[in-house]
Amino acid sequence: MSFRDLREFVDFLEAKGALRRIKAPVSCELEMTEIADRAVKSGGPALLFENVVDYDIPVLMNIFGTHQRVAWALGVETLDELTERARKVLELVKGPPSGMMGKLRTLGDLAGLARTQPKLVRNAPCQEVVLTGEDIDLNALPALKCWPMDAGRFITLPLVISRDPETGVRNVGIYRMQIYDARTTGMHWQTHKVGAHHYRASESANDERLEVAVALGGDPTTIWSGVLPIPPSMDEIGVSGFIRGEAVEMVKCRTVDLEVPAHAEFVLEGYVTPGELRPEGPFGDHTGYYSPAEEYPVFHVTAMTHRREPIYPTTMVGRPPTEDYFMGAAAAKLLLPALQMFLPEVVDINMPAEGAFHNLVIVAIKKEYPGHARKVMHALWGLGLLMLAKTIIVVDHFVNVHDPSEVSWRVTNNIDPASDVVFADGPIDDLDHATPVPKFGSKMGIDATAKGPMDGRMREWPPDIVMSKEIKDLVDSRWDEYGI
Ligand SMILES: Cc1cc2nc3c(=O)[nH]c(=O)nc-3n(C[C@H](O)[C@H](O)[C@H](O)COP(=O)(O)O)c2cc1C
Ligand SMILES: [Mn+2]
Fold it and tell me: Which of 42, 127, 130, 397 is the most exposed place for a label (fewest CB within 10 A)?
């Protein structure tokens, strides 16, 4: 099943008992953050604040705050279904199965896939109200001031849409936006993100402007697609359509040459000017630390359009886990089959919430040759946003990467630190505060696989302690008799 817009998803969540409407007056300065933080850390519901102090627009938070709700947002009951679908599509790429029926089925699948690509419509709910010029007032949005030391109010769940000035390929990314005044915001696309690449390309081309459109809301799959770290040649809106099994309806913007999801709640149209930078932040970030003020481009708004009686969707980040963790974990599941095309030895991968994605990656591999764990580390450091992985732990294929107890047990037992820890250096996430200089620093790979002659280790490697099946069965069958 797929949802048409945010309202349909709100109704769905409410029917599932997974959404609360809050009628009490609540402030979007700090108070909503504290409520949403408690909700996300306790597996609590999505929150629709209907009575926002000083604003007449309701605020929706925490829709993606559990693995289950992300799965529902993506039209599945469990995320494993999504991984399987991704695997099936990649199998089509490998070539159709032999035999006439197999080939016909593949053609049918491909035709079905083509039908899920973005569809342009003329009339869109997101343009029911169109504001331009002096009528635009970003201060009318109930944007959150999230944490006490934040520089101001931030739009935290925007879909930032731009086109590569060279290739014309669209990109969608969630990059927060600090509201500076009625018609300008910050544009916090970090150095290694695709939006920042578009910006640099427009700078090199001496373009006067890079047009940008920002959608708030829309169907939940499309909102989520903004976290996808897919290759720049791929369009998130197309991927969203594939997941939904139904095309995302798009509409042309009124003042820029871009398209936006027709069912968004709000759209901000505008541009950034190459070379124009302004301090952005501090902002209480998803690492659990404040990111300090840094220079980022400025977004000038040329139109603000919205639905009648719009809902303002937003999120808060802070000390993990926060909502972004659940969104990212689903992206990792969806992309695992693609990663396995290049690295077939990878069995599973986990980026625990505490590592805020870039600080810790745990990967299980089926080891076959000397240096194999190191090969995987270097491959990951060269693959998309995994370039930012500060720590990579490699374990054997039989280790459950999602079990922190098992991982700690294996890692600390299995390593001889001087031989099994690899240091490298390279690009580092903009949010990292530990490197001596911003954006560049060192990385650590830990080879926690079992070692043997293949690894130049001549000592005997001990087996895991496991009780025999006979005794386990015996104790199972006699358990009641023991009276324990
Ligand atoms: C709630 C939330 C806020 C985010 N804020 C930012 C941000 O301010 N800047 C940024 O570069 N990435 C931010 N991200 C991460 C990007 O959305 C993510 O890296 C995505 O893959 C970027 O897409 P891209 O590969 O098309 O650039 C945020 C993610 C979430 C879920
Ligand atoms: Mn992208």
Answer: 42
CA dihedral of residues 355, 358, 364, 366 (deg, nearest 10) = -160
Sequence-ordered strand ranges (E) for 322-464: 346-350, 361-365, 391-396, 421-427, 440-447
Model confidence pLDDT, tens digit, residues 74-118: 999 999 998 898 888 888 767 767 788 777 777 777 788 889 999
Ligand 1 atom having least distance to the Cα of 196:
27
CA angle 227, 74, 333 (to 5 degrees): 60
Q: Which of 37, 219, 285, 429 is catalytic?
A: 285
pLDDT at 82: 87
Residues above pLDDT 90, as percent of the chain: 93
pLDDT digits (tens, 9 = 90+) for 451-472: 999 999 999 999 999 999 999 9
Pocket test of ligand 1: the residue of 62, 157, 227 to mutate, having most ligand atoms within 8 Å of its CB, is 227
Q: How many angstroms separate the CA atoms of 145 and 35, rounded? A: 13
Burial of 439 (0-12, 13-18, 19+ CB in 10 A): middle
Give the number of whichever ligand sits closest to the CA of residue 328: 1
Is the torsion defined by CA of 324, 327, 333, 339 positive or negative?
A: negative
Rg, Å, the chain Cα set: 24
Expressed in angstroms and rounded, the spacing between residue 66 Cα and the centre of ligand 1 is 19
Of 154, 171, 190, 193, the one to substitute when testing ligand 1's pocket (max ligand atoms within 8 A of C-beta) is: 193
Is 285 assigned a catalytic role?
yes
- What is the per-residue pLDDT across 365-423, written as a single tens digit (0 to 9) for each? 999 999 999 999 999 999 999 999 999 999 999 999 999 999 999 999 999 999 999 99
Q: What number does the ligand 1 atom closest to the CA of 283 have?
A: 8
